Amino acid sequence: MSQATTTLTPADLISRFTDMLGPVGVLTGESDTAAYCTDWRDLYHGRALAVLRPASTRELAGIVRLCAAHGVPMVPQGGNTSMVGGATPDDSGHEVVVCLSRMNRVRNIDPHDLTMEVEAGVTLKAAQDAAREAGFMLPLSISSEGSAQIGGVLATNAGGNNTLRYGNARELVLGLEAVMPDGAVFHGLRRLRKDNTGYALRQLLIGSEGTLGFITTAILQLHPRPRAIEAVLCAVDDAGAALRLLGLLRGRDPALVQAFEYMSGTGMDLVTSLIPGATLPLGERAPAYVLVELATPRPDADLREYAEEILGEALEDGIITDAVIAESEGQRAALWKLREEHAEAQRQAGASVKNDVSVPVTHVPALIDRATAACAALVPGIRAAPFGHMGDGNIHFNLVQPEGMAPEAFLARSHDIMDTVAAIVKELDGSFSAEHGVGQLKPYMMPQWRGGAELAAMRHIKAALDPHNIMNPGKVLPPATQGA
């Protein structure tokens, strides 16, 4: 793709940006921009010409038109929670980071359509709270929901804990407004369940990781708020037993299963030893655990009796070895803390290599067993700590450095480790990117996994919408010289 050239000096550009956004909308000092130039995992460190913070779609469209006219690359950034460096600028100092955190209004909640209209800078937690206060539920739930913003959540097609029941982010989006790479505004804020009118452009933007435009506002589907919720932590001997438990739950009443999260014994040990206040509420540690959440909007459902009955059956059949049901909202939160603190515990334990992968649900036990053995052979002493959304086949197959090994030495093996896990995932008909995206960490894997006609089509779409490659360059797609 040809790159447009700028006729303005950096100082001239910053002056123009300031005229459009005001001083509060433009950050240039190193101390002000530093937090926007490093990713959450501290893997990537860049520099930005400026951090731009528009407060409206009109302001955003204006700065995009200016950037397009002068070939200024733009890096969209929400809460900066990307696990793959998808929102971090390069180190050239030529790119601008565009953060929509000032566009943070929940505009409307419609109780009849069961929809909410929300701007891109609203955090997922704030959107959830607004839905709850209105008597409904926004079911999308991820560990970083307190920081992650709606625009980034949709741009990465986030999955999360409730995908098993409600689907990924794209299943919850009815309409979008977006600013395209030339500054034109896509007006797609429709609340229609049925709308077969040409291509579904919103679905093209969802999951594009900011490479095709800026999502500014969304119409999200809400659901009835559950009237009864039961959270259960189960001890199991292995992932095969966890899969049998999932089959038992689905066979009895699949509509009740809201979340089904797998955790390895190694991962749980890290959480309980490194995270203050995280304690295992079972008599003994186990090789693996499952956190099950059952929920229903029915006011007359005796969910506790159902949970006790099915757990009794699972114990009798040897599927689980122990279990505890939360007796209060506080205990439910404590059980979820054991799951949600896995990433932080692994960070405290040392360097880690993260593999956000998915396989057909039936292959999850094979993935865990085979990848654990393969990585142990590759790096003796490595600590495999897989966890995640077993109910939809998405496992975060994370590996922590061996005790006593230098973090730098371990991270130097990152691609070897990732490739070892990916080879097994490929044999099991899976994907190397389940919900975290490709970012700048994994584009090198695209030709092997999405080569041929698929990658060629992606390149054509990118070239058509962003011919000068100024929207989040270096993310998702590998260089044109690599692969198809």
UniProtKB/TrEMBL annotation:
Family recorded in the similarity comment: Belongs to the FAD-binding oxidoreductase/transferase type 4 family.
GO BP terms in the entry: respiratory electron transport chain
Protein name: FAD-binding oxidoreductase
Keywords, alphabetical: FAD, Flavoprotein
Top-level taxon of origin: Bacteria
UniProt keyword annotation of Flavoprotein present: yes
Names of required cofactors: FAD
Signal peptide: none
GO MF annotation list: catalytic activity; FAD binding
